[in-house]
Amino acid sequence: MMGSTVDSMYIQQHLANERTFLAWLRTALAMKGIGFLIFGIELATDLGTPLTRTLAAAFSVLSFFAGMTVLVIGTVLFFRNRRTINAQQFKASGPAVLIAGIAVALVMLMLMIYVLLVSV
């Protein structure tokens, strides 16, 4: 029989932590993808105005950095949670979730503004 490690004592918690990290990763990739998609559509069509092209570029940059922010937060939380699960000192991550929520809200707001300007 193999020796037991600290990680093996909390297998379910560590698996949940990994699933949560993967959710952060999917969110970050979706945020980046939305920005690139809008910018690609804007470049591929000749229907845009200078304002919508500038807005699409700004949206793409914002969504990239928001996605990177979410990815960094998710990665930091994964390793912090891993450490605190083993130490039996887990703490909820309020400020990090708030920052990620603000980043997602900004991307959604920019998307709404872009769609409204393009549809007019």
Average pLDDT level: 86
Q: What is the ordering of alpha helices and beta strands?
A: HHHH
Number of strands: 0
Give Rg in angstroms.
19 Å
Low-confidence blocks of residues? none
Number of domains: 1
Amount of helix? over 70%
Q: What is the global morphology? A: elongated
The DSSP helix count reads 4
Which class best fits the helix and strand makeup? mainly alpha
* Strand-residue proportion: under 5%
| Sheet of most strands | none
First-to-last CA distance: 69 Å
Provide a concise account of the structure shown.
The chain is mainly alpha-helical and 120 residues long. 84% of the residues lie in helices and 0% in strands.
Task: Note down, in words, how this protein is organized.
The chain is an all-alpha fold and 120 residues long. The chain has one domain. The protein is 84% helix and 0% strand. The protein has four helices and no strands. Helix 3 packs antiparallel against helix 4. It is elongated, with a radius of gyration of 19 Å. The model has no long low-confidence stretch (mean pLDDT 86).
